[in-house]
């Protein structure tokens, strides 16, 4: 399958290397390949519970970008150890790359993705709304256009207001769900800010996003961050 990422994990997996390995897998998934495959045949894992590192990585990317993570291991004794921990409920293990690729093809969900980089100016607010409306119409998801336009408006405005980078919109459709994501070059995580000047209460844009979507989050990327929101039929306006 074109676009799958293959990592090779070597050395000892324990409490001192757990986070580094987990974050490496998450980083690979955030680049949005078709899948992340990790060859674990060269790992030394003294404590079987450490295999949970791969389940943890999968949980972090399960909502967005929802990239499958698979383990590759030709050694049956290690495969049995991994299976005994319960990790394979979330991250399957395959004997080789070929069988992993076959499983991906069999389980592949149709996903449609488009991307646009907008200039750093206020007219990009309208440009973002128009982009979302055009593609959701093309994908026969017109019922989600009002919700998606509000969300993309908030996310693009936040990039223009709080960063020095141009906003990059990523739009994805899988089954009946739509993901609206906006990337920027600022590594600071997106946060809800609800306290106004002088102690006055003000609802933040991200609070509005949270009320309109199934799930939202802020994920670090090598060049900054991606703020994303997933909407489904229940989020229609």
Fold and architecture overview:
With 237 residues, this protein is α/β, with parallel strands linked by helices. It contains seven helices and nine strands; from the N terminus they run E-H-E-H-E-H-E-H-E-H-H-E-E-H-E-E. The chain has two domains: 4-107, 2-Layer Sandwich (Transcription Regulator spoIIAA), CATH 3.30.750.24; 112-231, 2-Layer Sandwich (Heat Shock Protein 90), CATH 3.30.565.10. The chain has helices at 18-30, 52-61, 76-84, 97-107, 123-138, 145-162, 205-212, and strands at residues 5-12, 36-44, 69-72, 93-94, 111-117, 168-174, 177-184, 215-221, 224-231. The strands form two sheets. A five-stranded antiparallel beta sheet has the order 5-6-7-9-8. A four-stranded parallel beta sheet has the order 1-2-3-4. Helix 5 (123-138) packs antiparallel against helix 6 and helix 6 packs antiparallel against helix 7. The protein is elongated.
Which radius of gyration do the C-alpha atoms yield?
20 Å
The CATH top-level class label of the largest domain:
Alpha Beta
Give the full name of the CATH homologous superfamily of the largest domain: Histidine kinase-like ATPase, C-terminal domain
Distance between the termini: 38 Å
Q: CATH topology of the largest domain, what is it called?
A: Heat Shock Protein 90
Topology of this protein?
Layout: E1 5-12, H1 18-30, E2 36-44, H2 52-61, E3 69-72, H3 76-84, E4 93-94, H4 97-107, E5 111-117, H5 123-138, H6 145-162, E6 168-174, E7 177-184, H7 205-212, E8 215-221, E9 224-231
Parallel strand pairs: 1-2, 2-3, 3-4
Antiparallel strand pairs: 5-6, 6-7, 7-9, 8-9
Protein name: STAS domain-containing protein
InterPro entries: Anti-sigma-factor_SerPK (IPR050267), HATPase_C_sf (IPR036890), STAS_dom (IPR002645), STAS_dom_sf (IPR036513)
Domain STAS: 1-104
């Amino acid at each position: 399958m074109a676009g799958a990422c293959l990592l090779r994990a070597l050395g000892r997996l324990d409490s001192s290397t757990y986070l580094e390995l987990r974050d490496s897998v998450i980083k690979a998934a955030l680049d949005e390949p078709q899948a992340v495959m990790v060859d674990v045949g060269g790992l030394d894992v003294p404590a079987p519970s450490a295999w949970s590192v791969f389940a943890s990585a999968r949980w972090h990317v399960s909502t967005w970008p929802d990239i499958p993570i698979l383990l590759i291991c030709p050694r049956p004794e290690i495969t049995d150890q991994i299976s005994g921990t319960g990790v394979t409920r979330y991250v399957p293990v395959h004997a080789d790359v070929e069988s992993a690729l076959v499983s991906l093809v069999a389980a592949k969900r149709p996903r449609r993705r488009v991307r646009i980089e907008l200039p750093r100016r206020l007219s990009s607010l309208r440009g973002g709304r128009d982009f979302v409306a055009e593609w959701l119409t093309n994908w026969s998801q017109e019922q989600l256009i009002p919700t998606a336009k509000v969300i993309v408006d908030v996310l693009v405005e936040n990039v223009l207001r709080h960063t020095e980078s141009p906003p990059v919109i990523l739009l994805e459709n899988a089954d009946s769900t739509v993901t609206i994501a906006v990337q920027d070059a600022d590594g600071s995580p997106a946060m809800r800010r609800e306290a106004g000047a002088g102690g006055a209460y003000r609802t933040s844009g991200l609070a509005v996003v949270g009320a309109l979507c199934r799930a939202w989050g802020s994920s670090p990327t090598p060049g900054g961050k991606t703020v994303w929101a997933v909407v489904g039929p229940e989020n229609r306006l």
